[in-house]
Amino acid sequence: MKISSITINHLHEPLGFQLNDLRVAFKLAATEFIPVEKRLTIYLTTSKQPCWQSEWLNYDNNYFDVDLHLQARTRYQVLVEIRSKQEHIQAQSFFETGKMNESWQAQWIGNTDKKIQNTLFKKSITVDKPLKAARLYIAGLGLYETYIDNQKVGSEYLTPGVTAYDQWVQVQTYDITKQLSQNSHELLISCGDGWYKGNYGFDGGQDCIYGDQQLAIAEYHLEYTDSTEEVIVTNNTWQTTSGKITKSAIYYGEDFDDTLEITDWQPAIEVQHNYAVLQDRLSLPLTIKEQVAVQQIIHTPAQEQVLDFGQNQAGWLEFYNREPQGTKITFQFGEVLQEGNFYRDNLRQARAAFVYISDGQEKWVRPHFTYYGYRYVKVSGITQSLRAQDFKADVIYSDMDNTGSIQTNNAKVNRLFENILWSQKSNFFDVPTDCPQRDERLGWSGDAEIFSNTAACNMDVFAFFKKYAYDLAIEQQQHDGMVTMYAPAMGQNDGGAAVWGDAATIIPWNMYQNYGDSAILRQNYSAMKSWVDWISKNTQTPNLWVSPFQFGDWLALDGENPAMPTGKTDEDFIASIYYYYSSWIVAQTAQLFDNSADFEYYSQLAAAIKKAIQAEYITPKGRIAIDTQTAYTLALQFNLVEPQYQQRVVDDLVQRLHKDNDHLKTGFVGTPYLCSVLSKFGQHKLATKIFLNEDYPSWLNEVNLGATTVWERWNSIQADGSMNPEGMNSLNHYSIGTIMHWAYQYLLGITEHSAGYQQITFAPQFDYRLPQMKGHFTTPYGDLRIQSAIETDEQHTVKVHLEIPFGVQVKVRLPRAPKILVNDTKYLSGTFVLTAGKYDLQYQPTTDYIETYHQDTPVAEILKDKELVKQIQTIDPILDFFKDDPTSDLAQMSLTKLDTTFPFINISPDHLQQINQLLEQTPVLTQRKE
Known about the structure:
The chain is an alpha+beta fold and 930 residues long. The protein contains 18 helices and 46 strands.
């Protein structure tokens, strides 16, 4: 047994973070579950003098909620102990507080010239005796980087992150002990406009959203070995001037003139700026998480030189400068080529370039106060032949651990799952942005809400969403409870739309369900209530949400007016469902917090809304009044129909899909739930078919067209490779990547779970098209690993391998399983529970997974099977009708349907019967050995 990790508020050894709702959690690695006891000790200098210690507690979870009054700028040591009858083990970690509510000794400082694009501040100091420890507490407006003796402090970038800077500014804490020796040193702070002052937002953007002057504030706390202390602060003793960045902004990119000499230093001015906005950080660091090499140097038909990194991603380009002094080099960033040439029109008004003027020194060069979303880089101005090794793509995103992955026997499906993860990486950039490339990159609430469960499967996003939920709540405070379209709102007041606004309730609830930690619910509880109350006050119809504007099923494909992206599903129907769901979430949260008054109020409200929805949109016998895929899906997902009528709605959804040629037409609202609802209600085969479709519209259609991330539209790139002319074409947009949550649930088999995954129901639904499945998910207790396969032996044996972490119980429910052999030692039947350990399960299913054709098989599928076509031709020559166009609309129908629908398709009853008998006897092509 081993303690494999310790986290504090879901962070590893956090330094200077807000630490409200203090929780210390740990993971145990063991080969089996045995009863153990746990104890936590928190101390300052020695564990023999703790400032907090639990009793020895029976292990029923892997965390301690700690009620401890923390002191500012203090390091706390953490000791976790585990004991059993056989052994006693322990492990240590630490956390360190920031300034908390301590007053600042430092002053905000600036330059008299507010128009400077890169304000520098410096101070020379001398450390004249041995140093024990040193910390830096710093913030900047807009962005900053800080250096000691020309060496960057810390490994994160674009600090202090993006917030509503007029409401809160995050303070970063750095351990600078190793950078300050007993010597003279130069302290330097470099500032850029960033989100604070730079141009940002729609329609050309807006300047100076939160302020008009670059500022910095910092305190350097030095503790010497002789127990004396010194504090060096920003004030008018610092010097300031303009740096080498001549222009920068998030959309614009950056211009960097390395030939400029840094001169004209003058005293910094002390600026009377708000201190109350300064808070210890919530944001995870933005760091270089990966690097991608150039895959190809392309010389385009337009005589351009283009670097292809092979992967759409977000971050910036680093290059090795070999150019003479004064050479001007321009890098432009784009996601796709068009007709073989560089293309950037889908970036709209974002210039997205990096311009560098060489100082003649050979060295690596990078931008500082911007970032890009790209796969391709057009290079201009370099006088020498381009060398791939001189360029690298620094992939930047919030510092989150990867927690999940899925691999199948289908390479295209695997590429899709990679694409979804890459879109998450690209857009989890301090806030959950919609896209990383164009003049937007905003923290859209709706995108974040629908993807939050998928995100929590792929990565540890608790701390990330804790910060974003705080962003949402900050905006609600300024808007009487209304949730803005995105957070931070960047000075805009638009909001109050269903699904998007419901991020205020759904994201905190989803994080509680995924991590078993109610800290975000507590942080946002009043904001959650204020959102529901805002709807109640602003709807035009009591107990239904009727309002002038809604996004509807955004970018759905079933809209009657192609120019309208809201889809065909009634917008008030969608809004009312989310009004109901948010009210229900608030009621459940109130119950969790033992708030009986709120529980009763919001429970009654949710019941009243549900009743009103049923009265308005559902007949007494369960027919949904709106005939769309999304309407049926939402009715089932949110339990709006009585149990006795659920099958009717399932049947209607299936029929609707058949009318739509078994292709989805859903948008942002329906897509996350469509396949999950089908699999849950006995239609997994159809869900898998929709998932595996390769023509438009489908997930794999994007893969076939070369996507390396997820697109905004189902057809952002058209079949001929051209961009969709309707515009709004981000090629890195995670929203429809929600299908991966279905894959974790029903392909990998993590179908249900308790809050925090301490109890899991493992119930995969196997399908002949995906007979091999392998994946893992790192639960809050440890890594759950799953591998399954349907063997091709005569019995079609099903084999499953499970690795279960300590503290987790897995209820196993396998399909078509009369009895299951476990670890070659015993047979189990029905549903049974496994605890920590490794397990090999195998059984012969009651019915095999051999799939045959059937009378409803589309002609297009039959035509792919040449042997089957020959056999049908011996019965009837009907397939000759399709030889000129095997993928026509008619070929999407079955022979039976064609014969009964069109007079010119004339198959004799005897021949049709023989053909259908042949179909039902013939295994599908993918299951036959050629």
